[in-house]
Write a structure and sequence with these properties.
The complex is a heterotrimer. Helices cover 34% and strands 25% of the residues of chain A. By secondary structure, chain A is α/β, with parallel strands linked by helices. By secondary structure, chain B is an all-alpha fold. In chain B, 76% of the residues lie in helices and 1% in strands. Chain C has one domain: Orthogonal Bundle (ABC transporter involved in vitamin B12 uptake, BtuC). Chain C is built from 13 helices and two strands. Chain C starts with 20 loop residues before the first helix and ends with a helix. The chains are: A alpha/beta, B mainly alpha, C mainly alpha. Chains in contact: A-B, A-C, B-C.
């Protein structure tokens, strides 16, 4: 903690991709034995910056010094040689290989004869796992049998095996449940005490206040500020990130809430959806809060017929229905804008026109023939209505920005004229402007009587947009809070408080 | 962008075809005659029918290696149903086509229900169907078909080989389906992003099942034409034809990863291969030398179109 | 270790308890054990029906006659583990056999006639590897093209004639060492060496990494392109070694190889437990699978199944194995 000379120091870093500047003249440094939080919205340049530090990208301009000498990394090997290790959000592990092998891959201890010393690999893995206080992890288990939290500890063990002096952690808690978050934070504190410098990327402010010594905020690829954590409060950090006061972000439109559209009674699917009951009304936005892994997305998938319910009842406008495929859900008037836009939402190589019509192809055809004219008209109209910024409707969706891609997915589902619109993380990876536009669209839809089920990890979004909030944890509902009574504290408490109770109850 | 690069690939290929035709016609005056060209059409029908179905299969990101074996099995069955079971020949042929279609359906079930990767599934059925053909035929060939049967494979209708009409009809119908219908759209969508297709409510599994079934159907129709053309059945018929068909499809610009490809491209690829085979043999190059050249053309054509694509504006 | 905050005890999950040696063996070599058991069961059953099945003569046919397939399957297993495929290996073996035989007949030293197919195989496959790794053409397309080139090239050069008058010393596959047929010894030695290499060298392990998760392999600093070219070259060397065993079996070298040889080799690798999706499998499995096929083929003859139905039965067995494997994988989640 006492050493204030930075081990890693970046000055004036810039980087462009195909002509777009994603990082502009950014300064950043890390000292040994500190936790330096890196904060910013999606697209602010956080991941570009950490990929430079870990040798995946080379900067266009700027100086990069490690331990006082200037370096130019051309591969991750160079970064590793300088003691910089990274734990990526999408955990880069080899599922079919054992824990021990994942830890030492590319860095095996050898015997005198130069062959891999598996006994030593096992022994050292055991050591590292014990240091991470993970006695339950077996070095011989295949990684695919592990939970996300356990995989993350494998990644950390991997970093430690290379004697990392700087550990970069990219959104390490994004997919962890609360008890695992506590455990991870303990590990981070331990590493700091050993003199490891930690770059902690997260947008969860409570964690940052609990862990960080300093915080750096990026916005739109530029450096906004670097502060000691004592010098700032939550409000200041948020306005630095967003660039304007937070209140204007959620233009909640008042809509008339009508009769029930969707009623769910004791719905179950596996361990992730347990005994869910709620009612959704016309013109209502029902927010679903909960940690990743709390069963929110699984509930949506069950309602949408991807993973049909094993028991329970679903009523659409009072009629009991069974939903066993997305096609059926669509025909009943349920639409789902999925969490993973690139994988589940869009066919990126296809034109906007074809993506917009994808869920309504039958309606746009006579017999088996697609009516190209009608299809183009619908797409043009959607582009205008949702202000999708594009060259023309023949442009492949993959070329659009995140926000416009999301609008295409929404447009596709609005074409089906849904009664119930399920939005799963509707503004993840979307810039601030498009985010507000999406919120405005939601407001217009509820005015027209659409019922919206909105899943979001962003608490301000849930609080700002919802008429009512359901809180999920461990696959069950742990709270139902009305808009007027919703506070971050109440929702946050419901997200974690009953968790253990439920676990015990269903064991 | 995808569309532009596609057009570019096919234009490039068509130009190549024109050049090849020109060069070959300089080499031998027997090449660029109506009679010879029509005869080449006759010879490429079997591969062509299979390649058309294969274009759909590969465009969804799949592959069907068992088509040659299905062809062999259907050919054997045509003879066996007719001679040994005593069925009238039209019924025998229809029965053989039905079995071949069923074989394709079985491929589809293995791939969609049991989620076996298509390469492995059809590799296994390649061995199985060929084995059935060998077992049923016991190395006996069936000859001596009635004269009218040869209309299909050896005679002309309106001055054009009968089977070439079938190929042309199949190609036209298939291009319309792929380009203008909901089925074709589903094929491309599944090939580009299967998960998103499923999330959009498209009938992914049903489409795949239908395509592998269609592939079996095409192979068994090709089998009957083959039998009619060569007047006999043998259990090794169609061996290796899957590679010829895949070569034509990939040469024609269909991405082996799915999501891209046209029937026009496949037909140009097919013509290019056939022209090379025939033209070179007329020019005195042995048949096997041309196989070599086709391999080289395949690699070079993909290499060239890869280079084009990368120089384009790709994000 | 410094004082720790008390953390809640973690419930141990299935599959995470420390495994014993036997369990580890099964979890790592499950498919290999299944194939081996199938071979043993087959041997017992067929021998009970027809004791001549385990005559020395028949065993030599089973193990020795198919050794070249097993050797080729070792290289193929490495290719598939890395996430690629090679459909040209059958044609390559045909070409290499002709080269080797021609050199032997032309009076070059015997060692040279044996070395040539290995070197040429490496060179040809290195070119394939470069096209795959650097020109980024999918391996199925490149090897499909290579298949045509090699097959066409072979026949157009030889005109389909056989090579005869091979020097007796050249015919190593017909020799015995310490009482065992040489092909059997070569097969066992190469399998063991390759298995050790795949398990105990960083290079060998990196193939699993590339096939399992290429993105993660890149982030780990593994030079993917270079390794891809190298593994294709190594595969070429194994094809060359397979060629020596294949070409020296008989007094003549035909200009053709058994039909669908490449498919037999691929199937052996896959049935032996190599996932076609890359990232898992061992060369022990591919060799055992080759032996299993050979045993099945021989067994069918001994229990009087008509030779004409041989392929159908083998096809059915392959299909059954594939389906069982898929169900097993799915059960594991």
């Amino acid at each position: 903690m006492s050493d204030t000379t930075p081990y890693v120091s970046l000055k004036g870093m810039s980087k462009s991709f195909i002509g777009i500047k994603v990082l502009k003249d950014v300064d950043f440094d890390v000292r040994p034995g500190e936790v330096h939080a890196l904060l910013g919205e999606n697209g602010a340049g956080k991941s570009t910056l950490i990929k430079m530090m870990s040798g995946l990208y080379t900067p266009d301009a700027g100086t990069f010094t490690v331990g006082g000498e200037e370096v130019k990394f051309s591969s991750t090997r160079d970064a590793a040689a300088k003691g910089i290790a990274t734990v990526y959000q999408e955990l880069l592990l080899f599922p079919e290989l054992s824990v021990a092998e994942n830890v030492f891959l590319g860095n095996y201890p050898r015997t005198a004869a130069g062959i891999i010393d598996w006994a030593e690999v096992r022994r050292r893995t055991r050591d590292l796992l014990d240091q991470l206080d993970s006695p339950e992890l077996d070095g011989d288990a295949k990684v695919l049998t592990l939970s996300v939290a356990q995989r993350q500890r494998v990644e950390i063990a991997k970093a430690l095996s290379k004697d990392a002096r700087i550990l970069i952690m990219d959104e390490p808690t994004a997919s962890l449940v609360e008890s695992d978050v506590q455990r991870l934070m303990e590990v981070v504190r331990q590493l700091r005490a050993r003199g490891v410098g930690i770059v902690y990327v997260s947008h969860r402010l409570p964690e940052i206040f609990a862990l960080a010594d300093r915080v750096t905020v990026l916005r739109d690829g530029a450096h906004v500020a670097t502060r000691n954590i004592e010098e700032v409060d939550e409000q200041q950090l948020v306005s630095m990130m967003v660039g304007r006061p937070i209140d204007s972000l959620f233009p909640k439109a008042e809509a008339k809430i009508g009769e029930p559209v969707l009623e769910v009674k004791s719905l179950n699917h596996g361990r992730q959806v347990r005994d869910i009951s709620f009612t959704l009304r016309r013109g209502e936005i029902l927010g679903i809060a909960g940690l990743v892994g709390s069963g929110r997305t699984e509930l949506a998938l069950t309602l949408f017929g991807m993973t049909p319910a094993t028991s329970g009842e679903i009523l659409m406008e009072g009629r009991p229905v069974r939903i066993t495929s997305p096609r059926q859900a669509r025909d009943l008037g349920i639409a789902y804008v999925p969490e993973d836009r690139g994988l589940q939402g869009l066919v990126k190589a296809m034109a906007i026109r074809k993506n917009v019509s994808m869920a309504t192809m039958e309606r746009l055809s006579s017999g088996i023939f697609i009516k190209a004219g009608a299809e183009a008209r619908r797409a043009l109209e959607a582009v205008k209505r949702l202000s999708i910024r594009c060259r023309d409707i023949a442009q492949p969706v993959g070329e659009l920005s995140g926000g416009n891609q999301q609008k295409v997915v929404i447009a596709k589902w609005l074409e089906t004229v849904p009664k119930v619109l399920i939005l799963d993380e509707p503004t993840r990876g979307v810039d601030v402007g498009a985010k507000a536009e999406i919120h405005t669209i939601m407001g217009e839809l509820v005015k027209q009587g659409v019922a919206i089920l909105m899943i979001s990890s962003e608490l301000p979004e849930v609080l700002g947009m919802s008429d009512r909030i359901l809180v999920m944890s461990g696959g069950g509902i742990t709270g139902e809070i009305d808009r007027t009574e919703a506070t971050p504290e109440r929702v946050g408490a419901a997200m974690t408080a009953h968790r253990n109770g439920i676990e015990e109850a269903v064991r | 962008m995808a569309l532009r690069s596609l057009i570019r690939h096919e234009t490039f290929l068509a130009l190549l075809l024109v050049i090849v035709l020109f060069v070959l016609s300089q080499q031998s005056d027997r090449f660029f005659t109506v009679g010879n060209l029509l005869n080449q059409g006759r010879l490429m029908t079997e591969v062509g029918l299979i390649a058309i179905a294969m274009t759909f299969v590969i465009a969804t990101g799949g592959i069907d290696l068992s088509v040659g074996s299905i062809l062999g099995l259907s050919a054997i069955l045509t003879g066996v149903f007719w001679q040994n079971a005593g069925l009238p020949l039209p019924f025998a042929a229809a029965g053989a086509i039905a079995v071949g279609t069923l074989a394709g359906f079985a491929n589809g079930v293995i791939i969609t229900r049991f989620r076996v990767p298509p390469l492995i599934a059809t590799l296994a059925t390649l061995a199985l169907y060929r084995g059935l053909a060998e077992g049923i035929s016991q190395a006996r060939s069936v000859r001596g078909y009635p004269e009218w049967f040869y209309l299909l494979g050896q005679r002309d209708v309106l001055g054009v080989p009968t089977q070439l009409w079938i190929l042309i009809l199949a190609a036209v119908v298939a291009s319309i389906i792929l380009a203008y219908t909901t089925w074709g759209r589903t094929v491309y969508a599944v090939g580009s992003n299967e998960v998103a297709s499923r999330f959009s409510g498209l009938a992914v599994e049903k489409t795949k099942l239908a395509l592998y079934t269609a592939s079996g159907f095409a192979a068994s129709v090709a089998a009957v034409i083959f039998v009619s053309r060569v007047s006999t059945t043998r259990s090794d018929m169609g061996s290796g034809i899957e590679l010829d068909a895949i070569t034509a499809v990939v040469l024609g610009g269909t991405s082996i990863f799915g999501g891209r490809g046209t029937i026009v491209g496949t037909m140009i690829g097919l013509c290019l291969i056939q022209a090379l085979k025939n033209g070179l043999s007329l020019a005195g190059v042995k048949g096997d030398g041309t196989i070599m050249l086709i391999g080289a053309v395949l690699i070079l054509a993909i290499l060239a179109s890869n280079l084009f694509e990368r120089s384009g504006t790709r994000t | 270790m410094t004082a720790m905050v008390d953390l809640p005890p973690v419930r141990s999950r299935t599959g995470l308890q420390r495994q014993g040696f036997i369990r580890r063996l099964f979890s790592e070599y499950g498919q290999e054990i299944i194939v081996l058991s199938a071979i043993l069961v087959l041997f017992v059953v067929v021998t009970l029906i027809n004791p001549r099945f385990i005559s020395a003569n028949n065993l030599t046919t089973i193990f020795s006659g198919n050794a070249y397939i097993a050797v080729a399957a070792i290289g193929m297993a490495m290719i598939i583990v890395t996430g690629h495929i090679d459909v040209s290996v059958g044609a390559l073996i045909g070409v290499l056999a002709t080269i080797s035989g021609t050199l032997a007949v032309a009076g070059y030293p015997i060692w040279f006639a044996w070395l040539a197919p290995v070197v040429v195989g490496m060179a040809i496959n290195a070119v394939i590897g470069i096209l795959v790794a650097y020109a980024r053409i999918p391996s199925i397309v490149v090897t499909l093209g290579a298949l045509s080139i090699l097959r066409g090239g072979l026949i157009s050069v030889t005109g389909g004639t056989w090579i005869t008058d091979l020097p007796p010393d050249f015919l190593i596959a017909q020799k015995r060492l310490l009482g065992f047929p040489v092909p059997l010894l070569v097969m066992v030695a190469l399998t063991v060496l390759a298995a050790l290499w795949m398990r105990y060298t960083a290079f060998g392990r990196s193939l699993y990494a590339i096939g399992g998760n290429a993105e993660a392999a890149l982030a780990t600093g593994i030079p993917i392109a270079r390794r891809t070219v190298a593994v294709f070259a190594i595969h070429g060397a194994f094809a060359g070694l397979a060629t020596i065993l294949f070409a020296t079996q008989l007094q003549v070298i035909q200009s053709t190889v058994p039909p669908n040889l490449e498919l037999t080799v691929i199937t052996a690798a896959v049935i032996g437990g190599v996932s076609i999706l890359g990232g898992t499998g061992t060369v022990i499995g591919s060799t055992l699978a080759t032996i299993l096929f050979a045993t099945i083929g021989s067994a069918l003859i001994f229990v009087n199944v008509s030779a004409y139905w041989l392929r159908a039965v083998i096809g059915l067995l392959i299909l059954a194995t594939v389906l069982a494997d898929m169900l097993r994988r799915r059960g594991r989640g």
